[in-house]
Amino acid sequence: MSDLSFVRVEWDGDIAVVTIDRPEKLNALNAEVVSELGQVFDELADDDEVRGVILTGSGEKAFVAGADIGELATMDSVSGVKVSRDGQTVFRSIERFPKPVLAAVGGYALGGGFELALACHMRIASENARFGLPEVGLGIIPGYGGTIRLARLIGLGRAIEMTLTGDQVKAERAREMGLVSRVVDRADLLEEAKALMGTITAKGPVAVRMALESIYRALDTPTQEALDYESALFGLLASTEDMKEGMSAFLDKRKPEFKGR
Ligand code: COA
After folding, report:
1. Quick one: which of 22, 95, 212, 230 has the most CB atoms within 10 Å?
2. Of 124, 145, 150, 121, nearest to 209 (Cα)?
3. What is the domain extent for residue 161?
């Protein structure tokens, strides 16, 4: 990864830990951060060594405290559409990322930061995490997919309430609402994220990818088409070495060694 100012990538075996590193501004997303995130996810998508990605923020206080309000304050209608589109494109590439992406949310996930976490496939949070969409209080709306993804995750009523009030939700409540799957101590956040991702990366990588494919495809297609697609992927997996390995390992009472093909 070359020439990155605000995003760091570290490795833990086959897991890439991507950290948004702008702690003095609570990791707020300016155009450069968004562009670097896009660059990093593009490069990781093509890297066969990567089996999962953890996305987190630098510092104790925030995952990401939103889009950079200093930048947003200067936009007009034309540049506003571009700001929204640029963010949406990068967040969509995260949602469509071919390997699992887990957001490890330590502290504030507000506005664009919350939307970023929503674009990830899974979320866990530390006890000090806070989720909210303050946009309407700034005279704008969530523009990075939040008006779409939040309702899908927690249902229309609660999504509308969060969007229109801007009220923040604490970590434990976020877990109850299904916004995050686990709440852990701040000090353990990264290790817990790695443990969860490690459970997933030990599974058949092609199967994991196809499962994500099928789940996300179903959101956009009528039921019968989604079922047909699921069957096609199910059949496709029967031709993989991983399926043979997974089933032989079970029958031989040993751990599978998946190759991702
Ligand atoms: N955009 C730009 N700068 C931001 C920011 C954002 N979204 N969120 C925080 N910052 C900056 C602050 O301006 C401050 O910079 P400074 O030290 O140069 O003045 C620095 O990050 C620290 O934030 P601060 O407000 O001093 O921390 P706090 O602990 O008092 O408050 C928050 C934390 C998250 C409650 C508060 O920063 C906040 O409300 N941020 C904006 C959240 C928001 O509306 N996001 C949606 C944008 S669409």
Report:
1. 22
2. 121
3. 7-201
Q: Are residues 38 and 165 in the same domain?
A: yes
Task: Let me know whether 16 and 64 are in one domain.
Answer: yes
Taking CA atoms only, the protein residue closest to ligand 1 atom 41 is 65
For 105-134, what is the mean pLDDT? Answer: 98
Site to probe by mutation for ligand 1, drawn from 6, 21, 25 as the one with most ligand atoms within 8 Å of Cβ, is: 25
Structural domain total, the chain = 2
Q: Is residue 78 domain-shared with residue 141, that is, in the same domain?
A: yes
163: pLDDT strictly greater than 90: yes
**Residue 42 predicted with pLDDT over 80:** yes
The beta-strand segments (E) located in the chain are 7-12, 15-20, 52-57, 62-64, 101-105, 108-110, 122-126, 130-132, 169-170, 182-184
Q: Are residue 41 and residue 131 in the same domain, yes or no?
A: yes
Closest ligand 1 atom to the C-alpha of 111?
46
Find the CATH number of the domain harbouring 185. 3.90.226.10
- Active site includes 191? no
Question: Distance, CA 3 to ligand 1 centroid (Å)?
Answer: 26
Q: Are residues 186 and 215 in the same domain?
A: no
How many A from CA of 16 to the centre of ligand 1?
Answer: 28
Per the document, the length of the chain is: 261
Is 2's pLDDT higher than 90? no
> pLDDT band at residue 152, thresholds of 50, 70 and 90?
very high
Q: Please report whether residue 258 resides in a domain.
A: no
Q: What is the mean pLDDT of residues 111-120?
A: 98
> Token pair of 27, please?
């990791």
**How many of the other CB atoms lie within 10 Å of CB of 25?**
17
Ligand 1 centroid, distance to 104 Cα (angstroms): 20
The response to whether residue 155 sits with its C-beta less than 6 Å from ligand 1 reads no
Residue 1: per-residue pLDDT: 73
Question: Ligand 1 in contact with 109 (CB < 6 A)?
Answer: no
Q: Would you say residue 181 has pLDDT above 80?
A: yes
